[in-house]
Design a protein that fits this description.
The protein has about 110 residues and is mainly alpha-helical. Helices cover about 65% and strands about 0% of the residues. It is globular and about 40 Å long. Pfam families: HTH_3 (PF01381). GO terms for molecular function: DNA binding.
Amino acid sequence: MMEYNAFEIGPALEQIRKDKKMTREDVSAVTGLSVSSIKQIEYGIRNLSMRALYLFMEAYECDANTLLNIDTNKEVSLDAKLMKLPKEKRDYFMRSFSFMIDGMSGMQVVGR
C-alpha cells in the first residue's frame, strides 16, 4: 500500500507545473486555489486534498498516478486498488469521485 508523502508529491507537482510552463498564478486562475495553498502543497507543508487532486488533474491534464508520482511499473493503478476494496467502500469512493467529477464539469480551464 502506498503511503502519502507530501515531501515527495509536492516537488513532483511543482515539476509538472514547470514542465507545463505554468506559474502558480496560472494554476490559481485555473483551479481556484490560492497561490499560497499551491505553494504550501508544492513545498509539502500542506496535504493534497481530494478536491485539490482533481483540480490539479484538470489543470495539468494528467491522471492521478502522474500527480501522485506513482510509478505505474511498480505500483498498482488506482483503478486496480479500488477494485480490491470491499464493495461498500468501493461504492463509497465511486460515489465520491463521481460527485467530484460532476462538480468539475462546469469549470473552465484557461487556454482551452
